[in-house]
Every structure is written in structure tokens, then in C-alpha cells.
């Protein structure tokens, strides 16, 4: 497994921690819209993250069409997990095609500009993962606003360091 696959594996581990935390929320809080937060709710942020992977990796990177998911189509964390299983399959497809050529430049249209953009495979994957982490922070903030104490969803905790070093060798 290459570095990019390993990196995405770490992202999936932190996503799982967040999903486990979200399963402990009152179900109405998962979908509760709060005007003070961009995208409105924890569920909406999760959908937005999934659509970012679809837009950048599937549409831009793999030149495949994708259907937009509307927030209301997802009712709970279990359904969101199923959506992210599709995201995981998409990332795997993207990595199978491009992982050995991370600096390959891909050209395509970006919805908010006229001219085509040229972006590397590495940029596309990095952007989608950092975008997920940005919104993970917002999800945790919303949960705190709703009175919850979120679990630690940081990427690497001290107990992980030994395991990560072992994986490297």
C-alpha cells in the first residue's frame, strides 16, 4: 500500500471516530439546522464533504458524472455511513488509477470559473481530505454548541505513534 492509500486510511479512522460520536447524539441533533453555522447541521456538513469527494475526484479527476445528494435524502448516521462507503469506493478507484503518478496534472472545468483548471492528483486528494478535516472541526463545534463533549477525533493520538512506526517498517 502506498503513502496516499495509507494517508486515506488514517482519514477513514478519524471519520469512524466521528461517526461513533455522532451515533451517540440525540437523532434530532444530527439534523438540527443552526443558522450560525455554515451548511446548517452536522448531517448537512457530512453530505457536503461527501459531495466534495464526488466533485473533485469523480467528476474532475476521473471524468465521470455523479448525482448530487441532497441533505434531506440522508436521515441519520447509518445512512451517512452508507454514503461514505460509496466515497471510500470512489477514493479507491481514484487511487488505483492515479496513485503511482501523484504529480500527474489533470485538466478540467471548475463550476465557478470560465477557464479550465489544471490540478495534480496529489492536490485533488489532499484538497478533499483537508476539506473533510476542516468540516470535521465544524461538526465538533456544532456538537459543543448543542451541549455535547465530543470524543477526540484528532488524526494521531500518542498511543498511535508506536503502531504507526511499526506499520512503516
UniProtKB/TrEMBL annotation:
The keyword Metal-binding applies. InterPro entries: DinB, DinB/YfiT-like. It holds the Pfam family DinB. Keywords: Metal-binding. SUPFAM superfamilies: DinB/YfiT-like putative metalloenzymes (SSF109854). PANTHER family: DAMAGE-INDUCIBLE PROTEIN DINB, SLR1116 PROTEIN. Belongs to the DinB family. This is DinB family protein. It comes from Metabacillus flavus.
Amino acid at each position: 500500500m502506498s503513502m496516499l492509500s495509507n494517508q486515506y486510511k488514517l482519514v477513514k479512522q478519524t471519520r469512524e471516530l466521528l461517526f461513533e460520536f455522532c451515533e451517540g447524539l440525540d437523532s434530532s441533533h444530527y439534523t438540527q439546522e443552526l443558522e450560525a453555522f455554515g451548511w446548517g447541521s452536522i448531517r448537512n456538513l457530512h453530505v457536503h464533504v461527501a459531495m466534495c469527494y464526488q466533485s473533485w475526484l469523480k467528476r474532475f479527476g476521473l471524468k465521470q458524472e455523479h448525482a448530487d445528494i441532497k441533505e434531506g435524502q440522508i436521515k441519520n448516521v447509518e445512512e451517512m455511513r452508507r454514503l461514505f462507503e460509496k466515497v471510500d469506493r470512489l477514493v479507491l478507484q481514484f487511487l488505483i488509477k492515479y496513485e503511482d503518478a501523484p504529480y500527474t496534472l489533470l485538466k478540467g472545468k471548475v463550476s465557478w470559473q470560465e477557464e479550465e483548471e489544471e490540478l495534480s492528483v496529489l492536490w485533488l486528494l489532499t484538497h478533499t481530505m483537508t476539506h473533510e478535516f476542516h468540516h470535521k472541526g465544524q461538526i465538533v463545534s456544532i456538537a459543543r454548541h448543542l451541549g455535547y463533549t465530543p470524543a477526540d477525533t484528532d488524526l494521531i493520538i500518542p498511543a498511535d505513534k508506536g503502531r504507526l512506526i511499526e506499520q512503516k517498517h
